[in-house]
Design goal:
mainly beta; about 160 residues; single chain; 4-stranded antiparallel sheet
Length: about 160
Amino acid sequence: MVDYDYVSENPQESISTCITSDETVAYSAHRIGGLRLYDINLNNIPWAKDYDGSNWVLMFDDSGNPTPYTNMVYGVKTKANFFGPGWGAGGYAYGITPAMIPSLSVALSNGQVPLIQLFENDGTPILPVRCAVPEDFAAIDDHIRLADWDFLSNGNLVAMGESR
């Protein structure tokens, strides 16, 4: 998939995409650290609210405002919910601070931690952002990257971390 609206000057890795149950396409790029939305014909769908007018978002704070996306979350993996509506994006927090998302202040207190932001099909964020491991475990002075995650048929999430 080529995003003609944005061509990165940096090499890309961990590019991820998913198609929701209403045929919205969510696309993420590692070096950009954000998400864009498209219809099934690959026409860009602008976010209702983005951080800086760039039409890229990723994580939202406790009030539903987008956090900065560049240099904040890496290794983004988008997943559609095969068991119902909605989708999500997970990655490891690199520059997100407790001040940005106070509900995760314990998890974000030390190192990189895996986070998952869930969305309605139309891109409306489901709050709050989830920490993919128990917060007290994430607060240990070390790094945990998101290895992978997905939806379970009972509505729960399953996630695996990569300890650094």
